[in-house]
Fold this protein.
Amino acid sequence: MSLVLREVGPRDGLQAESPVDVGERVRLIAALVAAGLSDIEAVAFVSPRAVPSMAGATEVMAAVERAPGVRYWALVPNVRGAEMAVAAEVDGLSVTVSASAAYNEKNVHISIDESVDAVDGIAKVADGALPIDAVVSCAFGSPYEGDIAVATVRSLARRLLDAGATSLTFADTTGMATPPRITALLDSVGTDVGLHLHETRGTGLVNAFAAWEAGVRRFDTSVGGLGGSPFAEGAAGNLATEQLVYLLDELGVPTGVDLARLLEVCRLAEAMVGHPLPSAVARAGPRLSG
Amino acid sequence: MSLVLREVGPRDGLQAESPVDVGERVRLIAALVAAGLSDIEAVAFVSPRAVPSMAGATEVMAAVERAPGVRYWALVPNVRGAEMAVAAEVDGLSVTVSASAAYNEKNVHISIDESVDAVDGIAKVADGALPIDAVVSCAFGSPYEGDIAVATVRSLARRLLDAGATSLTFADTTGMATPPRITALLDSVGTDVGLHLHETRGTGLVNAFAAWEAGVRRFDTSVGGLGGSPFAEGAAGNLATEQLVYLLDELGVPTGVDLARLLEVCRLAEAMVGHPLPSAVARAGPRLSG
């Protein structure tokens, strides 16, 4: 398996912020591609009433100049979103289903069964022409139910593949993953999966390292750690892309990403959202920048 | 080797802050001991003109109620400091020598040779009655010379043991350690060493994890991540004690530390220094606190 870093800043990151202009979002996506990222979760085709920051997905995708070899992903919650995403000519669909029944119901107001049905509908829209990545949220625990058993997560993963998902990503939505919990899940579901890690408890990078050592080669990350609570309320967002790139650089793993350029994108993202982002590498620079 | 977490918040942490009253410092030390920490770097016997925050070391040690089985460490830079520390009845001496010649000269205004001589003098004062931990600062790189060769670090370590140090700690003063650099050093000096890690680049915890996996069982940590720049300028301080305790708890490693009580000490430390501390676990709480 070759390494895939999927940049989720333009979608999962900006979703948590006050709305940013379509033009700025396009500029952010282009800058990320210019820094070397080959997979970008660029937009979400969701209700603009429910998620105002994600309004204008069609406009963003129309304005993005497509770079060769780059896959532009869209989050889609349902058939209607998938149809819009296909019409906007995205390169992949991601769809989130929670391993926590309570979380699923509180956040998307439908049951897990209904979410699995949605994946089935989305797969029919994609009709084999697009990859469908099923993101299992709360895979390492729920704010409502606490621990989620590995068997429960695996069972849901199996159902999502049966429903038409072509790959799986396990999301530590609540920042409850730790290295032994990562290993326990991988022992059950294998390592040909993606991980979407958070820094809620400062464990995003150590979890990524443990997963890397175990053989995982797909990670969702967000430039600057964009996403989750703003900086003032703590570094609780996504694992920062530059933190993982820095670690992989140090491990001698080719990432295709130019860290210096990526750190410039951090500054761009900070200017866009109007507050500092919680990334230590972005502040301190890499170990030897000279 | 059994696990030793040496809490350096009262010394290395508070050193970087505006002076805190002797009584408050005693209270912090007592709270850390009550949370289960058995090794505390409590004071530094240094010039109060050079380091105003560390004034009153004798008074702190006189006021601390000694708990059985707890070792109270003092940082000493020279023979005079060692004499004062012995008079104050500390349980161990730590002495810092930089692997970076430029850093040593800029920070303590003497050469590495003179620092090694100081260790020799300190050892004569201790006269075998107290452990002397030599802390090699800039062990993973210097802001002046960049990389420091492992052979240079090992050679200095050897000289420090010859001069009378009874143990070694390698400090990532500049936050330039990464897992492969940790492993490279350990391959050279062995794993019966301490590590003193920083979060300057967000790699403190992943470095500790890599070191733990390699067999290291001694770590310097600081409650709340106290030390280094204040929070507003970024999470650049010491590896937070509660981050490592949380990780070790999750790994099933007995630490003797009660994480919930330790998090209360974080709040106490924050109140003492008057600003938030950069610890994600302190903000978010452990994974399952219920």
Chain A is about 45% helix and 15% strand. The radius of gyration of chain A is 17 Å.
